[in-house]
Amino acid sequence: MTLAGLAGGFAFGEGGPSGKPAAQDGIVDLEGYSFDKSGTVPLEGEWRFSWGELRQRAAFDRTIPVPGTWSGLPDGQGGRLPSQGYGTYRLELRHLPTESRMLGIRLPNLSTAYALYVDGVLVGSKGVPGESRASTKPYQLPDIVFFQPSGPSAIITLELANFHHRTGGIRSALVLGTPEQIKQLAFVHEAREFIVLGCLLMIGIYHIGLYALRRKELDNLLFAMLCICVAGRMSVIGEGLLPRFVPEMTWTAAGRIEYSFFVLSALSGFAYFRRAYSKEITRRWTFVACTAAGALMALTWGLPLLASSSLILCYQAFVVALSVASLYLLIVALIRGREGAALSLIGVAGLVGTVLSDIFFYNGWWRAPDMVPFGLLFLVVMNSFLISLRFSRSFAKAEKLSAELRRWNGQLEQRIAERTEALHAAEQSRRQLVSNISHDLRTPMTLIQGYLEALRDGVISDPGQREAVIGAMLKKAEGLNELIRDLFDLSMLEARQAQMTYELVPLPAWLERLAENYRMEMVTKGIAFDCRAEGPAIETACLKIDERRMDRVISNLIYNAIQATPRGGEIRIQARRGEWPFEAEIAVLDNGAGLLPEDLPKLFERFYRSDKARNYSSGGSGLGLAIAREIVETHGGRIEARIRPEGGSAFAITLPLAMRMNEEEEQ
């Protein structure tokens, strides 16, 4: 719907190019003009005009510009002419060409009832112009009339009355020419509207079919409504194709249908883009738009057409608001990189431009044809490109998926073999786990059983020996409890169900506490010990950790290093920035026996032992490094073992920093 319709209909601009004869003081001089060579003549310029009088009593005491409306023109008594009323136009044609005695006139939509006379003879009318609302019957349709002048001049008199619309007058120029030229002009206008109307209807029906095949795609139905509503509005204005097919349709019914299609087309267009890009604008906008549309529909059908057409500013505000909202959401969608947003934005910008063109025309700012249907066709072309783009990408994805499926099918046997091998390895790992657990449980249980049998049989009768045996059994029982506790902790950590209590811990303070905890023990074992943070970037860093569990990780690494480091050796805890920004690396370094390259891939597996890293006889359960890895990964970090080039081993823990340096924050 355009505001062209709100003003009572609009035909395509029919003014001729500059240089053609124009009316001056109610006279058009056609001397020397040839219709065959120069074409038709738009009857523009100054017509004589008589306000409030029909043809028989007209005084023609003033001039009036044509095309134009009489609303607001001076009435000659210090006031302004009202929009409702009646008057008579007059134009004299002089020096008519002699090559053709029969002439024709194409009349556009005139507001809102007229009777046309040539030399006093009625040649055409639409509706019944009268001196009051009761005596006037409104009706608007373009028309062509033919007449044969009785001499080299002719006088055109046009009675025009408007009591049913907000404006009265001649909005588009009448066109004079030969009968063949006028027929050709009318045919071009009608054919153009038929083509555009047919295209819009076919596109609308096509999208209804798409919606019927896939009900989830509601945007197809909304786009179909947009096309059909614009086509419906177009059918009752301009050439008036629908009233021509339905002669019983009254002017009031056609006007209300036009206004209804206007409201629905604006609403469906906005709803279509709101649906297509739902993340860019809230649903509340659709509710507001529907409410406003409902109010305008109620005004359209509840008020007389004169009253509803007088509210044109409301309709203009409605269409401008929805146009701005549509452009806004498409711009946001384009910024966010939504698929097809650029094409949709170009199409909507073209459509909005044609709508604004109509608004400017009916505000009297410029003259322009009704271009909204063409703007919509431009939008349809952009939408077709968008649909083609989506189909093309869908086909490309389907082809890629088909190629992937063929490749996967070709590798199916290989994948089955790999999966079978993986399952076999998992089964072997399970059996090894059960074997390790059985061994770690059987050894202490066998010793405890032997001690108990010796006590029962009286083999150990000395009180001192008895006390030593009981102490040994308690130590073995504690080892079993530790093993069971480690197994439970490991299972909870692997399932990510372990309770973690995170705190913000300054890294230097944590390192200082670790140094205090292990310094005395290192001294007694004759091992040099150092704990430091290297680099200014780490001095003010903080970690968000479960301090108790991270202490357990460091403890495991420290005692492993103590076992591998001889007296006189060195163990060092070193903290520095990691390889990536906002990471800290805490490494436990020793210069002991070191690690073998074949140990590195298996060090963090459950129950993996080497004499240098873990040994059950020294009290280890074989689960310490596996538990350490799970704790570190739960903190979002990683742990790895390295062989130091200078000798010894290094276990490095990388954790994300919770706070950057103050200097970095200021930057």
Descriptive labels:
667 residues; alpha+beta; Jelly Rolls; Rhopdopsin 7-helix transmembrane proteins; Helix Hairpins; seven-stranded mixed sheet; 17% strand; transmembrane; phosphoprotein phosphatase activity; histidine kinase
Radius of gyration: 47 Å
Shape: rod-shaped
CATH class of the largest domain: Mainly Alpha
Quote the average pLDDT: 82
Count of the domains: 4
The helical percent reads 40-55%
Percentage of β-strand residues: 15-25%
Distance between the termini: 56 Å
Transmembrane segments: 194-213, 220-237, 257-273, 285-303, 315-335, 342-365, 371-391
GO molecular function: ATP binding; phosphoprotein phosphatase activity; phosphorelay sensor kinase activity
Main location: membrane
GO cellular component, one term: plasma membrane
Would you write up a description of this structure?
The chain is of the alpha+beta class and 667 residues long. The protein has 4 domains: 3-177, Jelly Rolls, CATH 2.60.120.260; 187-392, Rhopdopsin 7-helix transmembrane proteins (Up-down Bundle), CATH 1.20.1070; 432-494, Signal transduction histidine kinase, dimerisation/phosphotransfer (DHp) domain (Helix Hairpins, Orthogonal Bundle), CATH 1.10.287.130; 503-666, Heat Shock Protein 90 (2-Layer Sandwich), CATH 3.30.565. It has 17 helices and 21 strands. The strands form 4 sheets. Strands 1, 3, 4, 6, 9, 10 and 12 form a 7-stranded mixed sheet that branches. Strands 15, 16, 17, 18, 19, 20 and 21 form a 7-stranded mixed sheet that branches. It starts with a helix and ends with a helix. Residues 1-17, 612-619 and 660-667 have low confidence and may be disordered. Keywords: ATP-binding, Coiled coil, Kinase, Membrane, Nucleotide-binding, Phosphoprotein, Transferase, Transmembrane, Transmembrane helix, Two-component regulatory system.
